[in-house]
Amino acid sequence: MTLPELELAEVEVPSVDMQASVGGVPLVSPVLTASGCSAFGRELDPFFDLTSIGAVVTKSVQLRPRSGRATPRMAETPSGMINSIGLQGPGIDGLLEDELPWLAERGVRSFVSIAGARTEDFAELAARLRGAPGVLGIEVNISCPNVESRGEVFACNPDASAAVVAAVREAADPAHPVYAKLTPDVTDIVAVARACADAGANGLSMINTLLGLVIDPDTMRPVLGGVTGGLSGPAIRPVALRCVWQVHAALPNVPILGMGGIRTGLDALQFILAGAGAVSVGTAVFNDPSAPARIHAELAEALGERGFGRLADAVGYAHRAPDEVPAGRHGR
Amino acid sequence: MTLPELELAEVEVPSVDMQASVGGVPLVSPVLTASGCSAFGRELDPFFDLTSIGAVVTKSVQLRPRSGRATPRMAETPSGMINSIGLQGPGIDGLLEDELPWLAERGVRSFVSIAGARTEDFAELAARLRGAPGVLGIEVNISCPNVESRGEVFACNPDASAAVVAAVREAADPAHPVYAKLTPDVTDIVAVARACADAGANGLSMINTLLGLVIDPDTMRPVLGGVTGGLSGPAIRPVALRCVWQVHAALPNVPILGMGGIRTGLDALQFILAGAGAVSVGTAVFNDPSAPARIHAELAEALGERGFGRLADAVGYAHRAPDEVPAGRHGR
Amino acid sequence: MTEGSGTRLVQLPSGDRVLPPVPGSRTEPLGEPAPPAEHAPVQGLAVVVGSRPVSAYTELTLEAPDIAEVAQPGQFVAFAVGGPTSAMLLRRSIAIAGVGDGRFSVVVSARAAGSTWLAGLRPGDEVDVVGPLGRPFPLPPPGTPTLLVGGGYGAAALVGLGGLLRSRGHEVAAVVGAGDAARLCSVEDLAAVAAPFVVTTDDGSAGRPGRVTGPVADLVSGAGAVYACGPMPMLAAVARLATDRGVPSWVAVEESMACGVGVCMTCVLPVVGADGRSRFARSCVEGPVFAGDRVRFADVGTLPPDLVGADAMALPHPPDAPALDEAPEPEPSAEPGADTAAHPTAPTGETP
Amino acid sequence: MTEGSGTRLVQLPSGDRVLPPVPGSRTEPLGEPAPPAEHAPVQGLAVVVGSRPVSAYTELTLEAPDIAEVAQPGQFVAFAVGGPTSAMLLRRSIAIAGVGDGRFSVVVSARAAGSTWLAGLRPGDEVDVVGPLGRPFPLPPPGTPTLLVGGGYGAAALVGLGGLLRSRGHEVAAVVGAGDAARLCSVEDLAAVAAPFVVTTDDGSAGRPGRVTGPVADLVSGAGAVYACGPMPMLAAVARLATDRGVPSWVAVEESMACGVGVCMTCVLPVVGADGRSRFARSCVEGPVFAGDRVRFADVGTLPPDLVGADAMALPHPPDAPALDEAPEPEPSAEPGADTAAHPTAPTGETP
Ligand SMILES: Cc1cc2nc3c(=O)[nH]c(=O)nc-3n(C[C@H](O)[C@H](O)[C@H](O)COP(=O)(O)OP(=O)(O)OC[C@H]3O[C@@H](n4cnc5c(N)ncnc54)[C@H](O)[C@@H]3O)c2cc1C
Ligand SMILES: Cc1cc2nc3c(=O)[nH]c(=O)nc-3n(C[C@H](O)[C@H](O)[C@H](O)COP(=O)(O)OP(=O)(O)OC[C@H]3O[C@@H](n4cnc5c(N)ncnc54)[C@H](O)[C@@H]3O)c2cc1C
Ligand SMILES: Cc1cc2nc3c(=O)[nH]c(=O)nc-3n(C[C@H](O)[C@H](O)[C@H](O)COP(=O)(O)O)c2cc1C
Ligand SMILES: Cc1cc2nc3c(=O)[nH]c(=O)nc-3n(C[C@H](O)[C@H](O)[C@H](O)COP(=O)(O)O)c2cc1C
Ligand code: FES
Ligand code: FES
C-alpha cells in the first residue's frame, strides 16, 4: 500500500541542524542536563539514550566526599521546589574512578561541575580533570561560600568570581571549555558575567537557584534542615530568561548555557531566542525523567515550524530589531 | 431543639485577637491589599467589606498623572505573572480629589503608596498627604529608577534608599508611619533594609516584584512592550519569605509588611511566623477578588488551631528555638 | 438550551441608559461612553449543566442564577481555570452568549491551556466564576433600525442583544463572518432574529466569500446603530464604515486581561473620553463595549504622545533603567526593544 | 480485581537474589543490602480502570502491562499529579499493592493536594506513571518461616509479598495495625495468606488494642525473616525486636522524594553499608527496602558525624553563608536553625 502524496507532505518535518557547541566544542544537541538534577547520568539510562543529548552535566563535585545535609532536603513550592542537598557526592576520586568511566564507556559526554570553598580547591579539581575520558568541559559552580571571605558566595562578588575562573582556566586542560555558573541573587548580574568573561571564562551557565525559604505550617519552623534553600523549576523561568537576556545584550559574544525552569521545547526556545546557545534541563527531570530527550525533539520541531534551518540562527534572535530579519523564513 | 454538648464543643473556634499595626498605628486586621493590585479599592467593593481588612494599599501615585506603558502589559507565567504597567494613575491631585475621599467616606483606611524619580518628588508627595482623610500611613515605592543616578533603581542602592526615606520621614505627617518597599533584586537585602531603618523608616514592605522576562514563541520577541517586567504571584513566595526571614533575623525590631505570592491563610501564616507583623495580598486578588477577606478568615482560623490567642504572639515565631516556647499551646 | 432566550433578560428601564438620538455631527464622537451595568458582579461556583460542540467551539451552559438573572447583553464572565492545583493564576474572560432559567451559556474557543481546560469541562463539574462583568451594549432610541456584526466566536456575544432588540421592536440586520465555515458561530440564533441576515467566510467555505465589511458597507446606511463583536481589525473596519456614514457604533473589544474587574490596569487601550481627551481606558470596567468612534484602533499597542499622562512617561535621560512596572517609559518614539540593555545597576556602579 | 494475584508476579530466579542463611552473629548486620530489581523502570500513561474506597483510603487499579508484568513486591511507582497545567511539579511515590492481568493496584491515602488529586482519579482517566521503582523485598531461603508487619496503608505493600511467599511454600504470619479501624488496610488480602494473622488498633476500635509491637514480640521468635512496611517509628520498633532476637528484617521506608528515580538526593537516610560504614543512602534506588538493622532510625533527620563525608560538611568559620545547596553544612553539632542569619553578603560588604 502506498500512502497518498498529501499525507506524506503533511508529515514532512523540516529538518533542523541542531548542532550546538560549548565554548567551541561541538555538541550533537543543544540540550544538556543540569548539575545536581541528573546525578551522574546513570539513573536516567532507562529513560532515554544519554548519547542523544548534548552532555550530562554532573552533580557538582568537591575534593572530598560529602555526606550532604540532614533531611528534610526539599519542599515543593508552586511550580517549583526548594532544595538544600548540601552537595552530597563522592568527591573527585569517586567521580574519576566510578562515574566518568561509566559514562565514557557508553559514549556519553560529560560536562563536569566543580565546587569548592577556596579558589585553590577549584584549580585543583580542574587539574585533576585533565585527560579524564569523555569530559567535554568544566562548569564552575561559584554559587559556593568562600571560606576566605567569611562565607560570602563567590558568585555574589565579581572579583572573587573572576579569581576562581582565572585559576580554573589556568589549571584546566586547554581543550576543556570553562563555564562559570552564575547566581541570580545579585544586584547586577552583568557585572559578574563581565568579570568572569574577562577572567577567561569560555562561557556562562545561568542561572543557579534563587535563595528561598518555606515554613512548615505544622511544625511552624523552616521545612529545610538547612533553613533556606535554592528555588528552581518553572516558577523561576522569567527570572532566568531576564538574566540571559541582560547578559547576552551586554556581552553578545559570550556563549551562554541557559537554564531555569525549562520543561518544554518552547521553554527552551525562549532561552535560545534570548541568547543561550544551549540549555540545561534541571528540575523538570524530576517530573519527567525523559525530559531532556523530549525537549530536544520539541525544540527541533519548534525551530522547524518557525522556518529556522539551523539552531545557530535562532540564538539571540529576540534581540534583533524586526527589520533586521527577512520576513517569512528565518535564518538561511 | 438543643444541640448536644459535643457538637457545640466541636464547632467552637478559638477566637484570636487579630489586631495588628503598621508602625504603631492599630489595624483591625493584619491583611492589607498590595499596591497596584487593587487600584484604589473601589472595584473590590462588590466582593468584600473593605472596612474589614487592615487597609487598602493604593496604587503607587506620582506627582503628575501617568498614562502607563503601551500594551501588552502582562504575561501569565507558571504560578505567577509578569507585568509592566508603567504606574498608570491619576497623579497626586486625582488621588486627593477622587480616590481618598471615596475611601474615607466609607470608613476604609488607606495606606498610600508613593513613587517618584527624584528624592524631592517623594518628599513633595508625602507633604501633600498631610491631613488627607483616612490615610493611615505611607508606603514608599523605592523600586523606581532614580533619574539623578542614570536610572539606577533607588532600592538597589542603600544610600539612595536612605535618602528617600529620610526626606519622606521629614516631610510626612508625623502621625503617618513611613514604610519603605524593598526589591528582592539585590545581593544583600539586609543592607538596604538597615539603611532604610536607620534613615527613619517605621517599617519595611517586602517584597516588590522580581525582574523577569517572557518571550512570545509566536512573535519571537519579548511579550511585554516594556521588554522586562515584574514577576509576582505564588511562584515568588519562597523568595519573599526568605527576604522577610533574613531581615527579621537581622532587625527584629523593625516592623515588616510581608508580601509576595500570598494566596491562602496558611501562606499568610508563613509570613507572620517568618517575622511579618502584617501582610499584603497582591496578585491573588486577580484570581480571587475576595482574597483579602478570605485570607483574614483563614489566617484567624489557622492561628486558633495552633493555639495562638493573639496574632502578635505568632510574629517571628519560626525564629525561636523550640525550647523558647511552651509545649502544647503557643503564646498566651 | 439557553441560547437567545433574551426574554429572560432583565428588561432595561428606558431612562438614562437609552442614548439620545444621533447628533449627526462628525466633529465630535457619535457615541457617548457606554454607561456601567446595573448590577455589581458576584463571585461563586457555577455548575456546568451542558456542553456541546458548536462548529470549532464548545458551548457550555452553566447554572448560576445570580449571574444569569442580572446579566445584560455585551457583558462577560471571568472563569478561574485549571482546578485547585492549577499553575494558571489568571482568570479567562468569556462573553455571555445567552441567559435563561438561572443559567447562562458561553462559547469557548480552545486556544492555549486555560481555554482548553474550560472547553473540556463536563456536565456536573463546578467552576469558579465572577460576573457579570463589564459594560453592556447601550440600547438605541425606540424605533432605531440596528445592524449587528459578529466575527468568529464574537457573534455569540450578540445573540442576547439581538433578541432584546427584537423584543423591543427594533429592526435587526446581521452580518456574521469567520475565516472558514468551521469558525462561524451562532448562525442559527442570529438568523432567527435578524433580517437581512448575511454570512461571510474569508475562504468562501460558507455564505458569501470575503470579509464582513462588504455586506456591512451595503447595510450600514440603513441602520441607526451598529453593534459589533469580533477580532480587532474587524471592529476597526466596521466602526470606520459606520462613522463615515454618521452612524453610531458600539464595539465589544477583546484585550488581554489579568483581573477582569478593574484593578490591574493590564487591559487598556487608547479611547477618547467624554471630555475629548484620550486616555488608556480599562476594557474590563470602562468596556468591553466602547463607542466605535472613540476607540483609537490605529494606536492600540502603542503609547500615543497625546494621551493624558503620556508626557510623564518620558525620561529626561536615556533609559538604562529596568523596565519594571515602576520604571518610567522610554521616549514614546523609541523603538520597541530599545531598552534591551536594561538592568538594575549595581550599588557600586561596576557597569559602564 | 487485582489484589493478591501474586501468581502473576514474575517468579524470581533462585540465584543471587535469595539471601544466604542468617549468620546469627549480631556484631555485623543481619541483612545484606537489598539487591536491585530485575527490570528497569519505564514511563508512560496508565489508564485508571478501577477506583474504590478501602476504609479511609482509595484503591486504584491501573492498566499498565509494562509495569504490572515486571513489578516485584516492595517496589513502588511514581505518579505525576494535577494534570497538564498543574502547579505541582514533583511525582508522588506509591507502593504497588497488587498486580495481575496487565494491571496494578495502589492504595492511596489522600493527604495534601497531590495525593488528594490521585485519590480522585476516575475510571477512564489517564495518569503519567513511572515504575516499577526501587528495590524489592529480598526473598528468604526456602522453608524460612516469615512474619509480615504492616502499619496503616503500609500493609498494602505487603500483599504481593505475602502471596509470593505462600506460593513458594513459606509459612507466613502477619500483624496489621493502624491508629483506628478506618485506617486499617489490606486486612482481607493478608488474612487470606497469613496464619497466624493479628490485627491491632491503637484505640481498640478493631482487633487487639495497642500497637503492632505486642503481637510482633510474640511472633518474631518463630520467624526466620521479618518484612515490614508502615510509619517510621513502627519500622524502627519492629526492626529492633527482630534484630534483638537475631532475626533478619526488611523494612520498606517512606522518605520524602522529589524524583523517585535516584537523581535528586532528597530521599536519603543514614544506612550502614556493606563495608560497615554509614552513608546517606537514597531510599528510592538503594531502598525503599533496607535491612532493618542497617537503617540508623535514631539518626534519621540528623547528620551523624560518623557518616562518610560528614567531616567535609563543617565550615572552618562560623556559618554566615547562605544555606544554598551549594553551602557547606554548619558544624554537625550546631542547633538546627543556627544559620538563621544566613544571607548572601554584598560585594561591598555593607553588612557587619
Ligand atoms: C471581554 C472578552 C470576551 C471574550 N469572550 C470570549 C468568548 O466568548 N469566547 C472565547 O473563546 N474567548 C473569549 N475571549 C478571549 C479569551 O479570554 C481568551 O481567548 C482566553 O483568555 C485565552 O486563554 P488561554 O488560556 O487560551 O490563553 P493564554 O494566552 O494562556 O492566556 C494567558 C493570559 O492571558 C489572558 N488572555 C490571553 N488572550 C486573551 C484575550 N484574547 N482576551 C483576554 N485575555 C486574554 C488570559 O485571560 C490569561 O490571563 C474574550 C476576551 C475578552 C477580553
Ligand atoms: C516508597 C514509598 C511508598 C509509598 N507508598 C504509599 C502508598 O502506598 N500509599 C500512600 O497513600 N502513600 C504512599 N507513600 C507516601 C506518599 O508518597 C505521600 O503521602 C505523598 O507523596 C504525599 O503527597 P501530597 O501531595 O499529599 O503531599 P505534599 O506534602 O504536598 O507533597 C509534596 C512533595 O513531597 C513529597 N512527599 C511528601 N510526603 C512524602 C512521603 N511521605 N513520601 C514520599 N514523598 C513525600 C511528595 O512526593 C511531593 O514531592 C509512599 C511513599 C514512599 C516514599
Ligand atoms: C535538587 C537540586 C540540586 C542541585 N544541585 C546543583 C549542584 O550540585 N550544582 C549546581 O551548579 N547546581 C545545582 N542545582 C541547580 C540546577 O543545576 C539549576 O541551575 C537550577 O535548578 C535551575 O534550573 P531548573 O529550574 O531547570 O532546575 C541543583 C538544583 C536542584 C533542584
Ligand atoms: C499588576 C501589578 C502592578 C503592581 N503595581 C505596583 C505599584 O504600583 N507599586 C508597588 O509598590 N508595587 C506594585 N506591584 C507589586 C505588588 O505590590 C507586590 O509587591 C508584588 O506583586 C508581590 O506580591 P504578590 O505576589 O502578592 O502580587 C504591582 C504588582 C502587580 C502584579
Ligand atoms: S483586566 Fe485588570 S483592569 Fe482590566
Ligand atoms: S527521590 Fe530523588 S534520589 Fe531519591
Task: Report on this structure.
The complex is a heterotetramer, with 2 copies of chain A (332 residues) and 2 copies of chain C (352 residues). Chain A is an alpha/beta fold. Chain A is built from 10 helices and 16 strands. An 8-stranded parallel sheet of chain A has the order 3-16-15-12-11-8-7-4. In chain A, strands 5-6-14-13 form a 4-stranded antiparallel sheet, with no helix packed on it. In chain A, helix 3 (119-128) links the parallel strand 7 and strand 8. The longest helix of chain A is centred in the N-terminal third of the chain and has 15 residues, at 91-105. With 352 residues, chain C is α/β, with parallel strands linked by helices. Chain C is 13% helix and 25% strand. In chain C, strands 4-3-7-1-2-6-5 form a 7-stranded antiparallel sheet. Chain C has a 7-stranded mixed sheet with strand order 11-10-9-8-12-13-16, sandwiched between helices. The longest helix of chain C has 13 residues, at 232-244. The radius of gyration of chain C is 21 Å and the shape is globular. At the A-C interface, helix 5 and helix 6 of A face loops of C. One flavin mononucleotide binds at residues 34-37, 59-60, 83, 85, 87, 113, 141, 181, 208-209, 230, 232-233, 236, 259-262, 281-284 of chain B.
What is the terminal separation of chain A in angstroms? 37 Å
- Oligomeric form: heterotetramer
Q: Could you say which structural class the secondary elements and strand pairing of chain C correspond to? A: alpha/beta
Radius of gyration of chain A: 20 Å
Number of strands of chain C: 16
- Residue-averaged pLDDT of chain A, rounded? 92
Give me the number of helical elements of chain C.
Answer: 6
The ordered H/E elements of chain C are EEHEEEEHEEHEHEEHEHEEEE
Please give the share of residues in helix of chain A: 25-40%
Bound molecules: flavin-adenine dinucleotide, flavin mononucleotide, FE2/S2 (inorganic) cluster
Number of strands of chain A: 16
Q: What is the first-to-last residue Cα distance of chain C?
A: 66 Å
Give the low-confidence spans of chain C: 1-26, 316-352
Please write the string of helix (H) and strand (E) elements of chain A: HEEEEEEHEHEEEHEHEEEHEHEHHH
- Overall morphology of chain C: globular
Mean of residue pLDDT values of chain C = 84
Strand percent estimate of chain C? 15-25%
> Which strands sit side by side, in order, in the main sheet of chain A?
3-16-15-12-11-8-7-4
Binding site for FMN (chains A, B): 35, 59-60, 141, 181, 207, 233, 260-261, 282-283
Subcellular location (chains A, B): Cytoplasm
Domain Dihydroorotate dehydrogenase catalytic (chains A, B): 20-303
InterPro entries (chains A, B): Aldolase_TIM, DHO_dehydrogenase, DHOD_1B, Dihydroorotate_DH_1, Dihydroorotate_DH_1_2, Dihydroorotate_DH_cat, Dihydroorotate_DH_CS, Dihydroorotate_DH_I
